[in-house]
């Protein structure tokens, strides 16, 4: 099964390691450092010029790629079928 991450990017669900919310993750110094290092080393792929709402950590053929997506992590989780019902009350 495949999932649309935004723009023209579609990836296989089996390649997904983690889907993270940018805003809540940015409060962690460790996550900020991880993303900075990943960007410096060329692992980051920006999907669109729009504001990033989530990042998706993937691995394919032993290569790590982090996609920055304009789609919220909740929407991506739903698309992937990881969660069926979320109440945002």
**Low-pLDDT segments:** none
Indicate the mean pLDDT. Answer: 88
Name the strands of the widest sheet in spatial order.
3-5-6-4
How many domains would you count in the coordinates?
A: 1
Beta-strand percentage range: 35-45%
How many strand units?
A: 6
Estimate percent helicity.
25-40%
Distance between the termini: 30 Å
Structural class by secondary-structure content: alpha+beta
Shape: globular
What's the number of helices? Answer: 3
Largest sheet: 4 strands, mixed
Write the H/E string, N to C: EEEHHEEEH
Indicate the radius of gyration in whole angstroms.
13 Å
How would you describe the overall organization of this protein?
The protein has 89 residues and is α+β, with helices and mostly antiparallel strands. It has one domain (2-80). It is built from three helices and six strands. The protein has helices at residues 22-25, 29-40, 73-80; strands at 2-6, 9-12, 16-21, 44-46, 54-60, 63-69. The strands form two sheets. The protein has a four-stranded mixed beta sheet with strand order 3-5-6-4. It has a two-stranded antiparallel ribbon with strand order 1-2. A hairpin with a 2-residue loop joins strand 5 and strand 6 (63-69). The longest helix has 12 residues, at 29-40. It is globular and about 35 Å long.
